[in-house]
Amino acid sequence: MKKVAYDCDVLVIGGGIVGLATAYALTRTTPGTRVTVLEKETGPARHQTGRNSGVIHSGIYYRPGSLKARYAVRGAAEMVKFCAEYGVAHEVTGKLIVATERDELPRLHALVQRGRENGIPVRELGPAQITEYEPEVRGLAAIHVGTTGTCDYSAVAARLADASGAEIRYGLQGEVVRIDRRADRGVAVLTADGAVVRGKVLVNCAGLHCDGIARLTGDDPGMRIVPFRGEYFELARPELVRGLVYPVPDPAFPFLGVHLTRGIDGGVHVGPNAVPALAREGYGWSVVRPRELAGTIGWPGSWHMARRHWRYGAGELRRSASKSAFTEAVRRLLPAVRADDLVAAPAGVRAQAVLRDGTLVDDFLIREGARAVHVLNAPSPAATASLPIGREVARRAVSALREAEGGG
């Protein structure tokens, strides 16, 4: 049999922060491993990584023992250290989670307990203490989480790309057209420029397109990505907010609600409002890709999800259609805000994994196939937790690589 000439040992699809953190971990934990990253955009972090609010999450929301809790708590500390080491703009500001209605108080108290179980410093506040942190914010009670911060995740991704030592192919050279996987010949990927890239093991970190990449590989992901657009505004009077202010989230949904985030540039993001996107990269209502939309509508889980959560979705759609309704939601936390204080800002799209029965996958979902590792759900706090997630994905990839090499 003719010996296969491999271009790399591990072929990573996706140049967002998780894919780049995986490449970074591979070259550090297993020196000598040849890594190639394929990214269809002209640079790294053009989608979820570069279009979020830049928060370094503490891990307070997540069920103790879950991957999200473990990775977020560990990842927040590591991200601050990484930013300091590589000169990435960041700040540890702390944040407030504020209850504005009495029925939110039990959920707020549950967050206090969850934070303590996850080893996160939490301080409980009354109404007067809230104004010590945020003079314009009003609430019945709040908690202050000291380990939350902000950073520039696009810059983090760029540093990971440079420091990984991986070969990174962008644009047509990194756009996947077809995948051929064979037990004795590894994985061959045809790219849009007509080249074939061969690796011994494939890692799928394709974010909004991860389910499609899994199917191209020949693996059934058992889920579909249903894209949700996060609509943001910028606060025209940023002096109204000193740091980060969040509502008490509804535990039935993997969204944190409309919140206020002072970024490292001094501006204050308000949002997101989460609505269905009409394309995987649908950053506005005018962006419609019929084939992608048909795939979402044709997935049984989409209909089960819609029937189960239509009231919640109707509220999000109302706030999308009506700026006054969005302003009303913000005023629950920040009564001084006016509609003309909110200036439209770039939107993001969240890659939400949905199971066939309509379950919204809440935790990280990583599955393995022959010569393949698929990251199928990397929700918030994926950016915060990218360094430990990258190590975990790298560990699985190295295990698959050793098995492949051992088998010839």
> What is the percent of helical residues?
25-40%
- Can you tell me the residue ranges where pLDDT is under 50 for at least 5 consecutive residues? none
Strand content: 25-35%
Number of strands: 19
Distance between the termini: 12 Å
Number of helices: 10
Cofactor: FAD
InterPro entries: FAD-dep_OxRdtase (IPR006076), FAD/NAD-bd_sf (IPR036188)
GO molecular function: (S)-2-hydroxyglutarate dehydrogenase activity
Pfam family, one: DAO
Could you explain how this protein is built, in words?
The protein is an alpha+beta fold and 408 residues long. The longest helix is centred in the last third of the chain and has 22 residues, at 300-321. It has helices spanning 17-29, 67-86, 105-117, 127-133, 153-164, 210-217, 290-298, 300-321, 323-331, 386-406, and strands at 8-13, 35-39, 55-56, 90-92, 95-99, 122-125, 141-145, 149-151, 167-170, 176-182, 186-191, 196-204, 223-235, 244-247, 259-262, 268-276, 342-355, 365-369, 372-377. The strands form three sheets. Strands 1, 2, 9, 10, 11, 12, 18 and 19 form an eight-stranded mixed β-sheet that branches. Strands 6-7-5-14-15-16-13-17 form an eight-stranded mixed β-sheet. It starts with 7 loop residues before the first strand and ends with a helix. 33% of the residues lie in helices and 28% in strands. InterPro entries: FAD-dep_OxRdtase, FAD/NAD-bd_sf. GO terms for molecular function: (S)-2-hydroxyglutarate dehydrogenase activity. Keywords: FAD, Flavoprotein, Oxidoreductase. Residues 9-396 form the FAD dependent oxidoreductase domain.
